Amino acid sequence: MIVFSCMKYTSLRTKKGVIELEITIDDNRISHIKLTGDFFIYPEEALEKFEQSLIGTTPNKVELDRVISKFYTDNKISSPGITQEDWVNVIIKAVTS
């Protein structure tokens, strides 16, 4: 059995800030993710929980849309100038580069 593991770094400029991403994919699932940059997310303690919610997710648009939308709804997230689609785009950018 071959296990694929790859760490990637990327960034994405959005309407109101830059998202910087460090991500590791193991066997086609997110095993590590770190989001930094000059953006705001409320409640402030939500960023670490957001990263944890993405662990184990298959990094494709449909699955990411589902997980991120659920996280935003369940946790009443506000991220001024950063859309849910921006998060999807930065992850897809990292795993396809």
Textual characterization of the structure:
- The chain is of the alpha+beta class and about 100 residues long.
- The protein has a single domain, classed as Enolase-like, domain 1 (2-Layer Sandwich).
- It has helices spanning about 45-55, 60-75, 85-95, and strands at about 5-15, 20-25, 30-35.
- The protein has a three-stranded antiparallel β-sheet.
- The longest helix is centred in the last third of the chain and has 15 residues, at about 60-75.
- It is globular, with a radius of gyration of 13 Å.
Brief overview, please?
Helices cover 38% and strands 28% of the residues.
| Share in β-strands | 25-35%
Order of helices and strands: EEEHHH
- Overall strand count: 3
CATH class: Alpha Beta
Features:
single chain, about 100 residues, alpha+beta, Enolase-like, domain 1, globular
Q: How is the secondary structure organized here?
A:
Layout: E1 5-13, E2 18-26, E3 29-37, H1 46-54, H2 61-75, H3 84-96
Antiparallel strand pairs: 1-2, 2-3
Helix pairs in contact: 1-2, 2-3
